Protein: Glycine/betaine ABC transporter substrate-binding protein
Organism: Microbacterium oleivorans
Amino acid sequence: MNKRHLTGILAIGAAASLTLAGCATGNDVAGGTNGGGSNSGEESLGTITLGYLPSWTDGLSTAYLLEDQLEKIGYTVEMQELTEAGPLYAGLAQGDVDIYPSAWPELTHKSYMDQYGDKIEDLGEYYGGAQLTIAVPEYVDIDSIEDLEANADRFGGKIYGIEPGAGLTKQTQESMIPAYGLDDSYQLVTSSTAAMLTELDSAEAAQRDIVVTSWRPFWANDRYGLKDLEDPKGAMGEAEALHFLGTDGFAEEYPEAAELIKGIALDDEQYASLEDMVVNEYGEGKEAEAIDAWLEENPDAYDTIVTD
């Protein structure tokens, strides 16, 4: 029997929708499922396309959490992988994507919100401690971004970043580097999150000096023993909130989903355990199992939670 804190769903009257233990599930875009449920033949409350960037694992974990929760209340969820934030925001604005489950609209993705915000609906903040950082491994004996200029040779004049279109990349290139006078002494190397982690892994194995762009929450901070460099000029911006964003009119079209999403709020410990369980403990291909395990350990994590 599902445990439901959703008051609105109880008012829907359509008992059949409440008995949908799992409808057509994730990765339907590719014609398959991820094991989160099966189509029972009952009518779905609707199909929701959920867009996410697999390499940004804060959003990867919340994407699979939303897939699980929305399917349990009767929706069909299609998981749409993208590789850059820009196309994801464009997809939201055009209605090709219904939800982005881990947006940084206040600062990191502000330029996208300035461009597309009038066609995007904010479905609610779910985490309040997100932060962009410049980081080094704990064995590196500098503590501030101010120390980078005098130590450029130690780092080979390189800061390893992530995707070129990421808000973190923009903030580093346009704010941090000029603020600390690093234009002539450092190159921001961009490629992908995976490529950055490969460089970090290699450097750590050799105990070699390396500086990377990072963020919180991010599982790699603990895995690689990263320390955030102090930012006395505030060039990486203040802490911001993570939001669920929907295409314009989402709440009107999918009221039950909007109510569930509005109730989600995670603290530091809950978010860290969710991301670690999805990314590390279970890994690729076992995301549904990871969500089941997390829900079992956190049955009261937020107000609208749906558990078996």
